[in-house]
Amino acid sequence: MDFLITALDYTDENALERRMQARTEHLAKATELYKSGNLIAAGAILSDEGKMIGSTLYLRFDSEEELKECLDNDPYTKGKVWEKVETQKIKLVPFE
To answer: Which residues, in sequence order, are CB contacts of 27 under 8 Å at separation 6+?
Structure first.
């Protein structure tokens, strides 16, 4: 199953600092997910000023339970970076 994740960051004055503190670990985990085939694409959502304020991810898992476990264990979830996470089942076009 393919999923689109839209995650918006907290908006308090320390939100960007928490993001930057968790970023290295978050990107390392994302690299592992990419190598395993679970992460298809991802990137930051930017404000009009170009500051990171959220994330988008295209993920592939066999079940919603696996997806939930992945998101629950993400450094951005654990580090209180993402405040609002929306998950949608999607069907990606197989360009291969």
So the answer is: none
**Cα(66)–Cα(43) distance, rounded to whole angstroms?**
21
Please state the three-class secondary structure of the chain as a single string: CEEEEEEEECCCCCHHHHHHHHHHHHHHHHHHHHHHCCEEEEEEEECCCCCEEEEEEEEECCCHHHHHHHHHCCHHHHCCCEEEEEEEEECCCCCC
Rounded distance between C-alpha atoms, residue 42 and residue 3, angstroms: 12
Overall pTM surpassing 0.85 (yes/no): yes
- Structural domains in the chain? 2-90 (3.30.70.1060)
> What pLDDT digit, counting tens, does each position of 9-55 carry?
999 999 999 999 999 999 999 999 999 999 999 999 999 999 999 99
